[in-house]
Amino acid sequence: MNNFEYHNPTRILFGAGQIAGMAKHIPSNARVLMLYGGGSIKANGTYDEVKAALAGHAVLEFGGIEPNPHYETLMQAVALIKAEKIDYLLAVGGGSVIDGTKFVAAAAVFDGEPWDILSIGGKVVQGAMPFGAVLTLPATGSEMNSASVITRAATREKRAFASRFVYPQFSVLDPSKTFTLPLRQVGNGVVDAFVHVMEQYMTYPVNAPVQDRFAEGLLLTLIEQGPQVLSAPEDLEIRANIMWTATLALNGLIGVGVPQDWATHMIAHELTALFGLDHAQTLAIVLPGILSVKREAKRGKLLQYAERVWGLREGSEDARIDAAIERTRAFFEQMGVQTRLSGYGLDAASAIDATVQALEAAGMTKLGEHRDITPAVARAALALSV
Ligand code: NZQ
Ligand code: ZN
To answer: In angstroms, rounded to a whole number, what is the distance separating the alpha carbons of residues 166 and 146?
Structure first.
């Protein structure tokens, strides 16, 4: 295991009813801007609960943050913050609203061209406004991490940044707020969390048994609870287990001291930027192919995954690896997320060409834990999911 430093400053308020008590974590004299998405929080009562909880605060609102949040929209929020002298932000929604709020928090105090935060990266960020979050969609882990992914609609660029200044100060995780999710988003969330674990686990062994077993525990929990949430969507305990699993999948803990991959995410982000597919849909297309084409470099971990996660102990090494990849693909499809380009009505040849060109244009030519996932390797991986 490699050396590491780990510090996660986000306070978690977990469970049904926790919104009511969150106001004490916001300075009482703060002028708060509540940021949200397209209106789901109004339809399911979250908006009213948040407003009631913040009755003692001055609260302004900024709605309309879209899925795969747009830079253009978020810059309007930055202008509002400056005009209204806002000093605290509250994100209420899914990963897109929380990611958008992170960018706004950094951009509002940034001295320079705000797009640099995304084109150069989080190292240019020297500070950010404080903010909290109320999570309504378990998937991204954004509620307890320092990452944010923003799309510039005008140029179809989807770019990420990470900075220690953009951890939420607190996040409310109330699983009852997820009951209104369309099943498509429930399935998306399970697949996204699953792939987050895989990006930090499916590399090569470094004698980190705690990280490995923790990762395997999260995968097994998703494999167990994912189908249960589809068959019993009103069950609060299943919702709670999925919500906590998704948070732990990307709050940094399982990734400490181990190599990480993230090629699947980088390739998938280009697919979303080009074709508008949901984040998890693109992950489900890319991951099976990456596992297959990188089977030599990942062989040790693929065999461990096959045995410990899918119980595959019989047959040749390659037969076990193939079976584990097929089980993974079947699990995503069981969660309602198609794993092939054709499943989304895309012409495979032109979609693959466009994705490979976009990776090249963005300079993403050396991805993965060995920096050997070139555009040609990405092409070979995508060709397995046509
Ligand atoms: O906009 P509203 O009306 O709120 O509707 C949303 C949206 O249409 C809806 N929704 C959310 N909670 C709901 C609900 N509908 C009914 N009931 C509820 N309780 O769901 C739709 C999708 O929401 P979105 O926030 O876009 O989904 P998700 O949480 O999956 O976030 C995806 C974004 O996060 C980024 C992705 O790239 C994508 O832009 N990611 C962020 C990461 C991070 N910060 O660490 C890591 C991830 O890998 C990912 O890249
Ligand atoms: Zn993801």
So the answer is: 5
CA distance 152 to 116: 12
pLDDT band at 302 (very low <50, low <70, confident <90, very high): very high
Distance from the alpha carbon of residue 190 to the mean position of ligand 2, in angstroms: 10
Position 53 confidence tier, pLDDT thresholds 50, 70, 90: very high
Residue 54 CB coordination number (10 Å): 18
In angstroms, the CA 125 to CA 111 distance is 9
- Ligand 1 mutation pick, 34, 41, 137, 172, max ligand atoms within 8 A of CB: 137
Give CA separation, 300 vs 2, 26, 205, 207, 222, in Å.
18, 47, 7, 12, 22
| Pairwise CA distance, residues 164 & 7, whole Å | 9
With a 6 A CB cut-off, is 149 part of the ligand 1 pocket? yes
Domains of the chain, earliest start first? 11-177 (3.40.50.1970), 182-383 (1.20.1090.10)
Separation CA 144–CA 382 (nearest Å): 31
Is 158:270 a contact under the CB 8 Å cutoff? yes
Do 76 and 88 meet the contact criterion of CB atoms below 8 Å apart?
no
- What pTM was computed for the model? 0.98
Nearest atom in ligand 1 to 137's CA: 12
